Amino acid sequence: MALIGTIRKNGWILVVLVGLGMAGFIAMSGSGPSGGAQEQFTLGAVNGESIDWIEFQKAQEALYTNSTIDAFSQRDYVWQYMVEEKIVAEEADAIGLVVGDDELQELLFGANVSPIVVRNFSDPNTGLLNVQTLNEFRQASNSGTLAPQYQKVWDFQNKEVVKDRLQNKLLALVKKSIYTPTWMAENIQNDVGSSVNFTSYKVAFNQIPDTDIELTEEDYKTYIKENSKTYTRKQETRDAAFVVFDIFPTAEDTMLLLEKFSELVLDFSTTDEDSIFALNNYGAYGTAYVKNSALPFNVADSIFARNAGDIYGPYLDAISGTYNAIKILGYKVVPDSVHSRHILIGLERQEQAPAVIARADSVLQMLNAGIDFDSLARIYSNDNGSALKGGDLGYVTEFQFVEPMNNLLFYGDVEAGVFTRVPSQFGIHIVEVLDRKYLSDEEGVRVASISEIIIPSDVTQDKMYDDVLEFAGLNRTMESLIEAVDANDDLTLETVKNIDRNGYTFSNLDAGTNSRSIIRWMFDGSAKINQVAPEIFIFEDPVNYFNAKYVVVGLTEINEPGLSDVESAMEFIEEDLSTEKKADLLASRMADLDVNTLQSRFIVEVDSVANVNLSSQIMSGIGDEPKVLGVAMTLEVGETSKPIIGKNGVYVIHVTKHTPASAAQNIGRLRLQGTFQVASAADFEFLDALENKAKIEDFRFKFY
Fold first, then answer.
1. Alpha carbon 347 to chain centroid distance?
2. Which pLDDT band, with edges at 50, 70 and 90, does 664 fall under?
3. What is the mean pLDDT of residues 328-336?
4. How many whole angstroms separate alpha carbon 98 and alpha carbon 170?
């Protein structure tokens, strides 16, 4: 208030401040990620073609208005879409491919509309294109009466359709260029037409103890080089260590909540609005009469010992961490089974409701006038299964039908022979109860409940925050943080490696904004190796919205693009490298041993494999072992292999039979088969290949 008063008295200050602000804005417009005003809105680029931040936001809005998908997943999809759109447009333009106006109209409204349009305008009940809704959108868009938010969706759909069409044209060109020559077709026939039988002798890797192998730094380096495709980073990643402080309610929090909940229970006992009261207090209002065996065993007997109107509780449910109270609404003997019949007047779309109600009323009038139920069910019922039987549903037990119908049959007071109208999500059921059977005469209880989760109070959350803030302030380096954690048995230092600058998941913490905040700090220009973040990162309980965790994070490593070093890759490759070393040692120990000696020195799994060829993915007994299969196809009958290092052990095989391929009868068909296999792979690999070839610049981490 003092500042506002000063400005009011000294108007010149405001003028100067505004002038300075404008000067700052002008100066700032010349800076940004790449130095210019335009670059400030460049989210990325594909082969030099910019992806605009504002266009990106428009695309996200068009695709995900009112969507429940989390924002980061939305952005991932939009980014991928916009990258692909740039790549496809560039490739199409290079060879003169376009989607003309007439072609676009055909894709939007023709006989074979684009799958994009079908996705957006499909009937949720049938999965088929809803032509009526599509045409309504078209007319509204053409007349300028389509709501702005829907116009954005409509306009973006056109872009999606064009991108999809161009992509399919490019893919078609690739597929049409694939050709299988005769010699290759003959090889295919030989590969799949010949077969082999053999006996397999497998020795598992674990028969070499860990103490028999030693992993050196040179072993790790060699393994990384041999698997460079897997262990080469395309972009910088970073490693972190962190401490999680969980916030739990104190004994005082628990007692205060119990006192508050006990007062709520008193109000619950006197209210006449049980359903509203229960639903407003995290509880439930039952419509079913539940038998003793269906209630939680620890409260069932206590509930059945009370009278209607009584309260059981408050009581503590230690598993859910809640205080609860249950109000007994009434008791009723529940039939074991009910025989009924119905006529369903189906409702597919909400706009059909008036017509459905009118038809149901008409059918009900005919029934009350004495017209045969069986005949009306065959004519009017949309439940085809029961309609053929005159609507007869037979005898059923509880919970076989939708809730409104189940409640009428088992808990309603409708007498046999009375026709009752029951609405459900499927339409309107006209129901007649024919018989109820009471075999066990077991009573059920109907209840309402209220609940209160036991959570830390604001005071507890604030105190813990102050404690964690002090802890972080005293431990500004990783060395200090490690020492502090080691000195406190209640704390654990966790690590996470290879975090990507655009990631939004951090270890096992909740994905989303909070994890993203940590990652943004890690890649902030101010973050240094061995530095602990000055900020305490807060993770809320996603259901009850209290501060559930405070996290202290330190940056431990910056991993530059390129081949991984031993330290950063060790934990990921140690097991595989250990297995590889065991396999080599095992193969050397098995070398030159005959089958009998092999079985005397090792635990050997013996399997007979029959009628396999190079197209066999899985072999009976030994599974997926392509190296074993490859060797088997090259051996002569009666020949025994040298040790073969497979996926699951080291094998020796003895070939017992070879069946040669018959002469190819239809080379044309084989050529088509070979071409089809390669073309099918193109469906999945085409865009990846173009993307790997493209120069993609990604600045998303600067925006969100």
1. 31
2. low
3. 95
4. 11
d(Cα 482, Cα 552) in Å, to the nearest integer?
12
- What's the pTM? 0.71
Instruction: Give the tens place of pLDDT for each residue, 601-634.
Output: 999 999 999 999 998 989 999 999 999 999 999 9
Torsion angle, alpha carbons of 21, 26, 31, 37, to 10: 120
CB–CB of 329/335 below 8 Å? no
Q: Positive or negative CA dihedral for 134, 137, 140, 144?
A: negative
In angstroms and rounded to an integer, the radius of gyration of the C-alpha atoms of the chain is 36
Question: Nearest-CA neighbor of 29 among 37, 39, 17, 40?
Answer: 37
Task: State whether CATH 3.50.50.60 applies to domain 337-437.
Answer: no
**Does residue 14 carry a pLDDT above 50?**
no
**Which residue do the tokens 């490298």 mark?**
577
Amino acid 186: pLDDT = 85
Q: How far is CA 465 from CA 482, 535, 539, 542, 551, in A?
A: 20, 11, 12, 19, 10
What is the DSSP track for 4-45? Answer: HHHHHH-HHHHHHHHHHHHHHHHHHTT-SSSSSTGGGGEEEE
| Average pLDDT of span 82-90 | 97
DSSP label of 698: E
Specify the residue for token string 């999680």: 244
605-612 and 322-333 beta bridge pairing: unpaired
Sequence ranges of the domains in the chain: 2-30, 53-165, 195-231+571-659, 235-249+456-560, 251-333, 337-437
DSSP conformation letters of 458-469: HHHHHHHHHHHH
Calpha distance 406→410 (Å, rounded): 6
Instruction: Confirm if 437 and 395 have CB atoms less than 8 A apart.
Output: yes
